[in-house]
Fold:
Amino acid sequence: MSRKLQVGIIDLVSKKPNKKLFARIMNANFASIMPQVIGVWCEEEGHNVSYVCYTGKEDLMTELPQNADIIFIGAFTESAQTAYALSNLLRSRGAVTVLGGPHARCYPEDAVKYFDYVVGFTDKKIINLILYDCASHRPVGLHLAAQRQPVQLPGVKERWKFIEPTLKKAPLIKLVPMLGSLGCPYTCSFCIDSTVAYQPLDFEVMKEDLRFLLTKFKRPLVGWHDPNFGIRFNEYMDAIEEVVPENSIDFIAESSLSILSEPHVKRLKRNGFGALLPGIESWFDLGNKSKTGSLTGIDKVKHIADQINMILRYIPYVQTNFVLGLDSDKGEEPFELTKKFVDMTPGAFPGYSLLSAFGRAAPLNLEYQQLNRIIPFPFHFLDNNHAMNIKPKNYSWQEFYSHVINLGEYTFSWKAIVKRLIATNAFIPRWMNVVRAVSEEGFGRISFNKTILDNLNSDFQFRDYFEQETTELPQFYHDIIKNEIGPLWHWLPDGALFHDQNAYLNAQEERIAV
Ligand code: SF4
Structure:
């Protein structure tokens, strides 16, 4: 064994201080599994671990692990600037820093400038290697990645010492994160999981975890982190039915519509599934994951609306996910069809994402980079909503934002909110829909998108940035980051607001040249 280390782990659920209602209720429920897994692995090797799940309500500066030899930070791309500043601060205190999570997988070329280690697919061997080495690698960190995802991960029982304090931060809803599988057999071109082979984890561990949770809560609530839950549907349900007395655990899962036939939905209801988040994505593309094949346009709308209304007869909370700005969309039709769908499924909550290319996340990103369509918005805005970093194929920016605003106003009009309230049967889902609509996700985004459109119409430099005629970052974005990351702004390294938006392509070309 290497020397006994003081290990710090920071899971950046939030990229900024956030005391808004929805964040206070929900953020602790979005803790990632891998930082907890790394905590278990480090303890198995005999090291001392302190773990912080940063939800936005803590004072991060006082919660940082003290006297740590090495600190692992898990971050999505939207938290990258926060993570870079944190790494700089922690290095100044003598710690070695490691970045993992989606940002490390998508942008390793950028992250190695600010961390001693950057890890892609991570298994215990990689972690042990880092713990053994535990050295400064500067100015350029080491990029390490396993060939594939681990075949097994520590379950809830082993992660409980990290889960329990995190759930204490969640005042009302306490969602235990579980994982039954990794990867996905579908190949949606924009998705980070489309290139990860589907692999179920050990059903015996899952059963043991469910039994364990029944000893911890009167009625546990489990959020499945599987990218596409229920691919091996019958095996999953058999395992749950074997250990969980009927309807004694509540479950939430993200499944593709192809899995959600009526017999399957009935079985999900019987087993306590109370919320499902199927992806529809587009009316003109990605028909395979919704099993709508070649159906497009209004025919697809009608078909899927029927299916969603069927699901809502059994499952009280359904969020339907859409990607706006796909290359298959043109004109106002995709937006008008989504409005029709909103009318036809009043009980569902629509979740909208702007098409985004996250570095190395998907092979399609290489094509966008080759076509010079990527705009280097600072990572802080790459959360699928505050910036679309791919120049739309069939819209001008002004047209696109006008459509997005119009759709948002339609979806979150008071008329639609009341219709959704009436069409939702259960108490928590009903109020969750209202809170989401009137908070950052509904009203907040409409107002932000209106500011973007105003700037596009009135500020030449702002518009030039979107049109790739300048790379000078508009002051608007600079000011938001400075304001949002607060005291960490002073620790943001020089140059960390900018990244090479074509790093994936450039790395491929360098490899070929070698
Ligand atoms: S079905 Fe979902 S998880 Fe699978 S590739 Fe498509 S978007 Fe990703």
